[in-house]
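Posting here for the record, re: magnesium ion.
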Amino acid sequence: MQASRSSEMATDTPHFGVIPAAGAILRAQGLRKIFHSGSQEIAPLDGIDFSIERGEMIAVVGPSGAGKSTLLHLLAALDTATSGTVYFAGNSLRSFVEIELSEYRNRAVGFVWQRHHLLPDFTAAENVAMPLLIRGESHEQAMRLATDWLSEVGLSGRAMQPAGALSGGEQQRVAIARALVNQPVLLLADEPTGDLDERSAEGVFDLIEQLHRAHGLTSVIATHNLSLARRTNRVFALEHGKLTSGADRLAAGTERAGAQTPGGRN
Ligand SMILES: Nc1ncnc2c1ncn2[C@@H]1O[C@H](COP(=O)(O)OP(=O)(O)OP(=O)(O)O)[C@@H](O)[C@H]1O
Ligand SMILES: [Mg+2]
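Prediction output follows.
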């Protein structure tokens, strides 16, 4: 089994030093992203500021095209902002040289894609082992860790199945195991339950909550599912390039829905 990491402990990382147990781990300042499509300018993020504390679970909601994926890509350093800055543990991603950016993407962040992007002809275990093999782990060790992770996401019997033969919910569990196999401190998930029926979506979200706690993660999850969003610490709502508290998007009277501004905290 994987060593779990409590969010109450500071984490000593090889490339980013000690990340304190508390305090802002992700911060966005004046974040703007402009896309050009022909003569048209699209600004899904038009000056966004927020701060996320270590151990928080945040939902990002908003209509299709509002910029949820764009925001997650910027947080994961998979794309660069037109202006403004993302800070990880106080360090501007703009100050990272290429090797630091690649360490950040591969070791600090676990990313679950909107479409899971598994290799369908490879087994579930091979898919999960891939990030370990890329970082130079032996095949034997990578497969051992991958198999452990597959048990942790409830797929111990499916490790040797081709990923393409698994159900949508199972494939998403494989994608989550692959995102976490390098033991990141951040989990960024882009509509991880978007393609699933209600029951599978609940199951996958339950799993994310459980892993979030067990491994001391800080998680940002884009979702269209407001009842799942309500289960997070805070909700960020994106619309017309701006970020607001998601409270008005959620039904009133829920305990955990974020009634704070994006800079605040539960
Ligand atoms: N590479 C790109 N080039 C041009 N426009 C883009 C690009 N990527 C995204 N956009 C545009 O930016 C806007 C935000 O897209 P994004 O994918 O972030 O939305 P989203 O909130 O994730 O939507 P969905 O809920 O459908 O996944 C959309 O209008 C989209 O068409
Ligand atoms: Mg999207």
